[in-house]
Amino acid sequence: MSDTVPVNSDSDVASIPTIFDPATCTRKGLCPVTQLRHDGSPLSSHSLYFEQHGTGPEKIVFIMGLNSTSFSWFPQVDHFGRRPEYSILVFDNRGVGNSGVPRGPYTTSAMAEDVVTLLDYVGWTAERDLHVVGVSLGGMIALELATRIPNRIVSLTLAVTRAKRDVRASLPSLKGVSSLARLLGMSDPEAKIPVVLDMVFPRAWLDAPAENDAQGRTNREVQTIEYRKRFEASRPQSPFGALSQMAAGLTHGVSPARLRSISSSIPKVLIVTGDDDYLVDPANSRHMKACMPEAELVEWAGVGHAVQVQRREKFNELVERVIGEGRSKLTDGWKSAEVEGGQS
């Protein structure tokens, strides 16, 4: 099965709805991706929808998670896209949003190859010039990306994600599995919103007053409006795309040896998780830290799966710190442990 995005001209791309501020957008488009068989013949072709915001020297690529579009990075695009220090790249993974739906099931390694193609397409190819931020399935893709192009990465932020390849680690909690199954059978966005909210945020936080909200609304009320905007601006996801992305998450695995290699070959690695996550057990983050001695682990109390939304200011501050520390290590003469050991 293959499904191409029904837009192929500059005017068509410009007309694709977005929730991001057009004032900060420097480029939006469709990146063509062709996967080849071992004999060199085409296996499948699809396009990745992307947007670039900001013009600063520090380049950040944000990789979104399971069955979510790039719109889920709104708090980060709104923040970093306005800052003079940063240029950011967000995109829809294959199988969701305005990107194509190639043959499935997908793998995180193939989705990482998509990202390499996109980075090459937009010209982000220099050594030690890139900051990678991945959440959930996006963090799994980021691990595969870090295996492929470690010399291009300054910092790597792995949020609410995992590396273990086993059934216990890969499956969400019972509540997470139930929510994902219910969403597969839903087509009405208004019916989906409460299910999504209860899946990615702790109930106590949803029912609490929203911070600095002049109207005195709860977080649930505010997020219902935010998610409605995302759904209204997004193409509906096909069940095939959703299931193919789920397959990528279920089959993902990075060995302890590869984790150690990633940890030693990138100047700054951060692992961040909440302690109230229904989709990815925080124990997965602790496992990664045990295998990545150079990495930093941050755990937030009372935080669910959508860390970049629930703790938007703290998350943005954390990413800024990680970017600065990675750049400082390079300035101070940091060397990859593999290079120092003569392995690469």
UniProtKB/TrEMBL annotation:
SUPFAM superfamilies in the cross-refs: alpha/beta-Hydrolases
TM regions (residue ranges): none
GO molecular function: hydrolase activity
Domain AB hydrolase-1 intervals: 60-309
Pfam families referenced in this protein's UniProt entry, alphabetically: Abhydrolase_1
Alphabetic keyword roster: Hydrolase
Keyword Hydrolase: yes
Record InterPro entries: AB_hydrolase (IPR050471), AB_hydrolase_1 (IPR000073), AB_hydrolase_fold (IPR029058)
Top-rank lineage group of the source organism: Eukaryota
PANTHER family: AB HYDROLASE-1 DOMAIN-CONTAINING PROTEIN (PTHR43433:SF5), HYDROLASE, ALPHA/BETA FOLD FAMILY PROTEIN (PTHR43433)
Protein name, as recorded: Alpha/beta-hydrolase
Species whose genome carries this gene: Wolfiporia cocos (strain MD-104)
